[in-house]
């Protein structure tokens, strides 16, 4: 089987072989890069920031994949790394600018408005502004469920939170987003 | 009370908890339509844009960071550089000239009268009285020997008695000096 169509377990096997390690890694990047990028981009908004975070994620994957024990799915593990990197990045932003998290969130909304394609009359842009009103952990939950349609069981492993808490959090998030859409 | 809660928190809490404990296997789409028909009816299109060819180049960019070995900086031997060789030659020439000057000045110092006197006085200090006395005696003998050297004014006529008068006359004619005979 070619590496480009290999399953996660086959990729892991190939990665542990020094001869096929680089090819397996390249295949893994190609398989997951878009999903991870958009997950990160919705959290940090700017492309350059998303690119920096994604590169950090993929380098961490390179360094840690050999010791990945397959207790969880590779897909879940990748999202966990990406989510943690996003939260770390946002935390650093907050520390650097010495402002509150709500200021960072309003800064993210301003970044959305500064996008050269931004159009306030379009509902997809309004949805992005609504998502940025959410606290960052609720934003992760909303993003994983709404865009990725990730099952709660997997989300629970990514965020190390109970399924019930995630469901409640998502319900809250959806209601807040809906409220923003109706009132702005 | 100093604490605040998000707007509408209590209004949605009960509903959220009931939703959380509900044990069903709804799909994400069905679930969303149930919570918010507005959001459930939206197209999930992505408004963000990204640079052209970004994903095509990403894996090679990442591979550059992870798989390529750290390139060692090229080691350039400093001794192979032209300026270094010229500088080394100049330093060597300078050293040779300086060494020459130092050597000459030492030799001049050794040949000076003051240096010789100093050396003699050192040697004299090292010598015993008996050695000095012996030396002085030798010097006296030398002086007496010197005083015994032949004085041309004291040459006696006996030395010339076997030489025929005609030869003496010829000799005197050649040298033009008749003092010897007169004495």
Spell out the key features of this protein:
A: Arc Repressor Mutant, subunit A, 9 helices, B: 183 residues, rod-shaped
Please tell me about this protein's structure.
The complex is a heterodimer of chains A (184) and B (183). In chain A, 76% of the residues lie in helices and 0% in strands. Chain A is mostly helical and 184 residues long. Chain A folds into 2 domains: 98 residues, RNA polymerase sigma factor, region 2, helix turn helix motif (Rna Polymerase Sigma Factor, Chain: A); 86 residues, Orthogonal Bundle (Arc Repressor Mutant, subunit A), CATH 1.10.10.10. By secondary structure, chain B is mostly helical. Chain B is rod-shaped. In chain B, 3% of the residues are buried. The interface between A and B is large, with 47 and 40 residues.
CATH architecture of the largest domain in chain A: Orthogonal Bundle
Largest interface: A-B, 47 and 40 residues
Briefly, what CATH class of the largest domain in chain A? Answer: Mainly Alpha
**Count of structural domains of chain A:** 2
Task: Give the structure's gist in a few sentences.
Chain A is mainly α and 184 residues long. Chain A has helices spanning 8-15, 21-44, 47-64, 74-97, 101-114, 123-132, 136-147, 152-159, 163-183.
């Amino acid at each position: 089987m070619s590496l480009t169509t290999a399953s996660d377990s086959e990729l892991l096997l190939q990665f542990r072989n020094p001869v096929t390690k680089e090819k397996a890694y390249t295949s893994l990047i190609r398989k997951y890069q878009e999903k991870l990028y958009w997950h990160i981009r919705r959290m940090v908004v700017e492309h350059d920031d998303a690119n920096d975070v994604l590169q950090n994620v993929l380098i961490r994957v390179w360094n840690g994949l050999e010791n990945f024990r397959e207790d969880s799915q590779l897909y879940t593990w990748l999202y966990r790394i990406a989510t943690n990197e996003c939260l770390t990045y946002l935390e650093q932003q907050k520390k650097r600018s010495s402002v509150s998290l709500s200021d960072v969130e309003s800064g993210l909304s301003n970044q959305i408005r500064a996008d050269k394609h931004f159009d306030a009359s379009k509902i997809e842009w309004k949805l992005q502004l609504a998502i940025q009103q959410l606290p960052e952990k609720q934003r992760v939950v909303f993003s994983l469920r709404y865009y990725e349609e990730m099952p709660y069981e997997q989300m629970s492993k990514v965020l190390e939170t109970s399924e019930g808490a995630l469901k409640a959090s998502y319900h809250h998030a959806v209601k807040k987003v809906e409220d923003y859409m109706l009132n702005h | 009370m100093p604490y605040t809660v998000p707007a509408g928190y209590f209004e949605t809490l009960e509903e959220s908890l009931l939703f959380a404990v509900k044990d069903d296997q709804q799909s994400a789409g069905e679930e969303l339509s149930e919570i918010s028909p507005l959001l459930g009816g939206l197209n999930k299109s992505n408004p963000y844009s990204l640079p052209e060819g970004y994903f095509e180049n990403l894996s090679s960019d990442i591979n550059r960071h992870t798989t390529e070995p750290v390139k060692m900086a090229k080691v350039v031997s400093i001794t192979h550089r032209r300026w270094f060789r010229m500088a080394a030659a100049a330093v060597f020439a300078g050293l040779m000239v300086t060494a020459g000057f130092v050597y000459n000045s030492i030799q001049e110092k050794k040949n000076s009268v003051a240096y010789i006197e100093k050396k003699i006085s050192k040697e004299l200090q090292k010598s015993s009285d008996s050695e000095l006395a012996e030396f002085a005696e030798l010097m006296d003998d030398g002086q007496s020997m010197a005083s015994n050297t032949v004085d041309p004014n004291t040459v006696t006529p006996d030395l010339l008695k076997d030489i025929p008068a005609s030869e003496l006359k010829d000799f005197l004619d050649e040298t033009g000096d008749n003092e010897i005979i007169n004495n």
